[in-house]
Design a protein that fits this description.
Elements lengths: L5 H15 L1 H19 L9 H23 L2 H20 L4 H29 L5 H30 L1 H18 L17 H19 L4 H23 L8 H4 L2 H27 L5 H12 L1 H4 L1 H29 L6 H18 L2 H7 L7 H29 L7 H18 L12
Length: 443
């Protein structure tokens, strides 16, 4: 761990928070610009969805490798380089002459975003001790929650003011500010890790995760989905063989052997599943409502995440596990209750309950899980945590979509409810004292 002055530690956190605020807008913004960009630019219309797919897929693919590299290089410079990539790709995206170029630039931006996320976490975990991480991730949760809640409105507002190119330029400018915030910070380079690392394992793992996330997370043609799933299965098979023969595997599976890390990773994936399924299903259930009422419904689901994370970080000082467990149980109960009625009042109450539970736990699982990660492995540990969350979230949304198709939209809510209950059981098991404690990862 690096011992910095309070001023420098705060600068590290501020730089990470500025960069973190870009990510949700990049996702919602890319989604919002697809119709307009497809209409304006030359190229096959089928390329339009890949503006989003390319960004998300490469983010998932590059995240673990970025985490491994961040731990083995100058964390500050790696983080700054990621933000430079995001900024340059954003500006060039606004100037793209055709859809093919725009998709390629969004792929580049996804790689840069992975570098930002991994590098920022590596910096923060390298300078903040475990006992302070619940507070730090309260701030991270507040920024993420605010960006997620306001992202769609910001994207629509930017398009109204300057068209779809502005949706790429503004995040690029914010990434540039994050770069400026790193000027004068120490490099934060560790000497505790070997220079050699498992590049093959990290690349294969990234490919496998990207294929799975893309297959389950997007409405692609059947042939593309099947091809991606077969690729993911093949990648997993090769990965197992490679990792068994590697003395120092890139994938920090020893962290997944820590019950609390594993349980909180599943828990945060469950909460994100509630959010993404709620954003999809609640407007369908409220189809008989007016536009303003649907907007209020979605606001009840998202706005608490802008207001409550800092309160949550204070509660988490003593009662993190009870807070997360209670929120998971309440989310599951609300989902089951909505099976009984789709009356407007029930929808508003359900959305409000989901929103409060999400707001009161935003950043809490992250802080609790990552306090088990050694400072010199912060990038890889945070990347694996985020990858687990994305995987659980994507699989939950895919299963919920299937339930809505085969049964009813309301039934889709039962999927995240089931994941929440599984998370409760996992967290309860992790909280039980073990006669043979799991060894902590080496520091």
């Amino acid at each position: 761990m690096f011992y910095l002055s309070v001023r420098h530690r705060r600068r590290v956190l501020v730089a990470d928070l500025i960069s973190t605020s870009v990510f949700p807008l990049a996702i919602t913004g890319s989604t919002a610009v697809v119709p307009a960009a497809t209409a304006d630019l030359r190229g096959a219309d089928a390329l339009g969805p890949w503006i989003v797919v390319g960004y998300n897929g490469l983010f998932a693919a590059a995240l673990l490798l970025a985490g491994v590299l961040a731990d083995r290089t100058s964390r500050t410079k790696f983080f700054a380089l990621g933000n430079i990539v995001v900024a340059v790709a954003g500006v060039l995206s606004a100037l793209a002459p055709d859809l093919g170029t725009l998709v390629a630039l969004r792929v580049l931006a996804g790689v840069g975003a992975a570098m930002c996320a991994a590098g920022g976490s590596a910096m923060v975990l390298a300078v903040y001790p475990p006992e302070d991480r619940h507070r730090v991730y309260g701030y991270v949760g507040a920024v993420l929650g605010t960006s997620l809640a306001l992202g769609p409105f910001a994207a629509q507002g930017l398009m109204a003011v300057g068209g779809w190119p502005l949706v790429f330029v503004v995040p690029a400018a914010v990434a540039g500010i994050a770069v400026l915030a790193t000027i004068g910070l120490p490099s934060l380079r560790s000497t505790e890790l070997p220079k050699e690392f498992d590049l093959a394992g990290a690349v294969i793992f990234g490919f496998t995760i990207a294929a799975a996330v893309t297959a389950f997370g997007f409405a692609l043609p059947v042939w593309a989905t099947v091809g991606l799933l077969l690729s993911a299965a093949g990648g997993f098979t090769v990965l197992v063989r490679v990792e068994r023969r590697t003395a120092d595997p890139a994938i920090p599976l020893d962290l997944l052997r820590i019950p609390a890390y594993r349980a909180y990773a599943l828990g945060t994936g469950a909460f994100m599943g509630v959010l993404v399924v709620g954003l999809t299903v609640l407007p369908q259930l409220g189809a008989h409502l007016g536009a303003g009422q649907v907007g209020l419904l979605l606001s009840l689901l998202t706005i608490p995440s802008t207001l409550l994370p800092l309160v949550a970080s204070r509660i988490a000082r003593r009662w993190a596990a009870p807070l997360v467990t209670t929120a998971l149980v309440v989310c599951a109960a609300a989902a089951f209750a909505l099976q009984l009625t789709d009356a407007p009042l029930a929808l508003f109450i359900g959305a409000g309950v989901f929103g409060v539970c999400l707001g009161l736990t935003e950043g809490v699982p992250d802080g609790q899980a990552l306090k088990h990660v050694p400072a010199h492995r912060g990038g890889a540990g945070a990347a694996l945590f985020s990858t687990t969350r994305m995987t659980v979230e994507t699989l939950t949304l895919a299963a919920a979509t299937g339930a809505a198709t085969l049964l009813t939209p309301t039934a889709a809510l039962l999927v995240p409810a089931a994941v929440c209950l599984l998370s409760v059981a996992t967290l309860h098991h992790a909280s039980r004292p073990s006669p043979n404690p799991t060894p902590q990862p080496s520091t």
